[in-house]
Amino acid sequence: MNFSEYKKINLPDEPGVYLFKKNKVILYIGKATSLKDRVKSYFSSDLIATRGPLIVDMVFQADNIDFIKTDSVLEALILESNLIKKHQPKYNTKEKDDRSYNYVVITKENFPRVLIERGRILEQDNKTNYLIKDKFGPYTNGSQLKEALKIIRKIFPFLDQYSRENTGYKFYKEIGLAPEISGIEAKKDYAKNIKNIKLFFDGKKTSILKNLEKEMKIFVKKQEFEKAEQIKHTIFALNHIQDIALLKSDRPEQHLENSFRIEAYDVAHISGTNTVGVMTVVENGLPNKNEYRKFKINNSIQNDTAGLAEILTRRFNHQEWKFPDIIVVDGSVAQKNIAEKVIKEKGLDIPIIAVTKDEKHRPKTIQGIEDAINKHKDEILLANSEAHRFAIKYHRSLRNKII
């Protein structure tokens, strides 16, 4: 197929899935944030450099292009995977080894977890520490799949490998991303969430909506209006999926360059001894554990503010580390002021956000620039929670070595 033949096909500027065909046989399936722009890119002069000779050959062989519009980029991602699995197109299966693809796994437990695993891990016997109930995939783009699960989790909260841990679970539950996990009713409600997640990954959003509408009408008849209103919100969320993050992650190289980075800092000690500090990083809403850092603090430093000052000074001596868009500190005015002092001395202009906790170490107040807090509250709390968890873990590991 050449460019003049492509121009005869009226592709919409909307998300969906495209199918290159020859004699009605599917050669290749892809997803797009814009069907029009994405398919047009296959007829650029630098195709061989960007996609390789295999895809160039596919375009040359094709004599037609079909497409399926979807309501969102998220649904395009899932539809692409389901169609590839069903049709096994020649040029998709040759592009990459399936073992390096990502899969969504639902575990076989009383309260199932929803996880992402590599194909090569799932192929190995006894490699996972859980039984698998359902598996969806393969998905070629790991960063997009993580973003997709974040979107789904806001609609149907679920457990993952982190949220069953004590501090992690409490945090996710507080921000509405993890379910209640005690009691018979909680188990029934969570089972509905898992059922809907399965239907969504099977590409059956219409079935979910029909089931939810029936359930909402039942609650209205019973005059349980609060429950009916909750379902109404879920229906709205499904019909108006916010997949802006997926639009960004559709271009991995830009996603990395323009990622929004939040760094959080915490200090841990017992009675002023064995003081340690940590830095955790959340990029585009997800923890980037490869960027976490540990700091041993001088034993002469006896308080949190002085320890924080040392950590920040040492951190910003590393000009080679990417600088953050927001800095989060654990504490109140004192910690915020010392952080601002260090940043100013370094000649930098980075917003400082301070998170104050209550006696149960739950977020109580957030101080700083209101616009930044309103826009990035979930990420700020996640970074802060990760910093506390990581600091305690690091401190315990050092203390156990001494003991």
Describe it.
There is one protein chain. By secondary structure, the chain is an alpha+beta fold. It has three domains: 3-95, GIY-YIG endonuclease; 100-249, no CATH class; 259-402, Nucleotidyltransferase, domain 5, CATH 3.30.420. It contains 17 helices and 13 strands. Strands 7, 8, 9, 10, 11, 12 and 13 form a seven-stranded mixed sheet that branches. Strands 2-1-3 form a three-stranded antiparallel sheet. A three-stranded antiparallel sheet has the order 5-4-6. Strand 8 (273-283) and strand 9 form a beta hairpin. Helix 9 runs antiparallel to helix 17 (370-402), helix 11 runs antiparallel to helix 12 (225-239) and helix 15 runs parallel beside helix 16 (333-345). It is globular, with a radius of gyration of 25 Å.
Q: In the residues, how many domains can be counted? A: 3
Into which percent range does the helicity of residues fall? Answer: 40-55%
Counting DSSP E segments of at least 2 residues, the number of strands comes to 13
Spans of at least 5 consecutive residues whose pLDDT stays below 50 are 251-257
Characterize the quaternary organization of these chains: single chain
Order of helices and strands: HEEHHHEHHEEHEHHHHHHHEEEEHEHEEH
β content, as a range? 15-25%
Radius of gyration: 25 Å
Shape: globular
- Count of helix runs: 17
How is the secondary structure organized here?
Layout: H1 3-6, E1 16-22, E2 25-32, H2 35-40, H3 47-51, H4 53-61, E3 64-69, H5 73-87, H6 90-95, E4 102-107, E5 114-118, H7 119-123, E6 132-139, H8 142-155, H9 166-174, H10 184-201, H11 205-221, H12 225-239, H13 244-249, H14 252-257, E7 261-270, E8 273-283, E9 286-287, E10 293-296, H15 304-315, E11 326-330, H16 333-345, E12 352-357, E13 363-367, H17 370-402
Parallel strand pairs: 7-11, 11-12
Antiparallel strand pairs: 1-2, 1-3, 4-5, 4-6, 7-8, 8-9, 8-10, 12-13
Helix pairs in contact: 9-17, 11-12, 15-16
